[in-house]
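Posting this for the archive.
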Amino acid sequence: MLNSIISFLDFIISGIVTFLIRESLYVTLLFGVIYSVTLLLRNKHPRIILALWSLLFIRLILPPSLSLPFSGRQLCDNLPFVAHSIDWVHNLVKKYSSPHQKTSQLTGYSLEEDSSNLHHVKVTSVSPLQLPIWRTLLFLSWIMGFCSFFYFYIHRKRQFNHVIRQGQEIKNPDIIKIMRRWRSILNIRRNVEILSSDSLLSPFTIGFLKPVVVIPTCVLGNSNLKILETVIAHELVHIKRYDDVTLRIISIIQLIYFFHPLVWFARRKWLLNREFVCDNIVLSHGQINPLDYGRGLMSILNLNLSGQMEMCAVSGFQTQKSEVYKRILLLKGAKPMNRFKNMSLNILILLLALIILPMAGRSTSASAPNDMVSSVSSAVPLNSKIDFKSPIKSGKLTAAFGNIMHPIKKSIYHHDGIDIAAKLGTTVHAAADGVVLEANLNYKKGEGSGRFIVIKHNDSYTTRYTHLDEVNVVVGQRISQGEQIGTVGNTGLSTGAHLHFEIVKDGTPQNPADFIDLSGIKKAE
């Protein structure tokens, strides 16, 4: 019972750690691309820049296996240096985050079941009491950090809720008139409550179903109506755009990746460009002169209301002095955006998302197209005898070809190949020249053959490599004998790192020992 619980915890911990590490590496790669583009744009297109930073946060919550045939990741596959760099990082993550990676454990049993046969495989078995300490410590550190930042998040949210409860409703008819006019201009149908408070020194907006705008008492007492209109219009744009919702989502993502400095940097850039966009929207309606709007920003800045953006509230006037200066420089460029330009921008952002967000390599378990398959005969002479080589250089033969005893049911089952136990990540080579028929990455833990590759060598022979950790080929790819096609893994129904290898002739499994030299493979004791 205890072993089962520990095994389950190890599975959960391994999954979380692997996801966080892999997403962190993906975002680091994506950050370089986005930051380079934003430098080229030079704040001239804040909506595009804001969308790019938003895509970075979206990437952090997408599954690592997301792949599209026309994505930038697929284009990288055609560049050998870039593709090998990404694959190296990908393999490194798997090697040090996957469970059951100890190489000394080459005894035990697991069951391998494919669509036609149930096999007995003698492979690695890991004691649940021997979990990798570093991974457990890493997970515990992440839990403690997340809880600490989450406590801070909740604490700040309670502070803002307390301010709202203590706030007083603003009944000044001039301010109410400004509020109603801008609600009409921005077509905001939700009821918006406006309050005053002496608890904070900066205006802010909170809530999305029942939004509230809070204006500090000192702003009301020291500002004219033009400055107040600047504040109110800007805060209402935040309400119009549901910025409180997006800010909460991004804050939660930041809490999850609190350990990643680039996430903090990206959030700050996202906040700044969000303010650029809101400034642009206010001025695009032509109701406020850019000069008056800039004076409004400077007046509030002079009231010493600058500071860091809080995690639970939306405010356009709580930014640093240097950022307010940047916003003022961009005020002259505010122009109305018609529906056609707005729709074109949305389409551009969607295309960017489809290109840069998928980070996984291409994989498929479907058979190769007929034209690719038909070209195999030109790679290897028709029905000629093939000189197969061992797909792995070293390891232990833990299950031979033929009828073997089921370890649990004590019944005889036919094993269609051989099993070679080896270190996780050991290179797997093509046994002969051919073309890839199948390259499957999708699998369920504890079921089937895991990640596998099928290579067609001519009209008679195919080879099959299962339970792989890494698949480095794609369907239709021509393969030379000895070329790396993947790495030894522990995927599918297996309890330890090993390679299951089959040679099939005209649909009938053959004994690999009759075709390849196994002298370099030790036999399990």
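Residues 98-130, 304-312, 363-383 have pLDDT under 50 and may be disordered. The radius of gyration is 30 Å.
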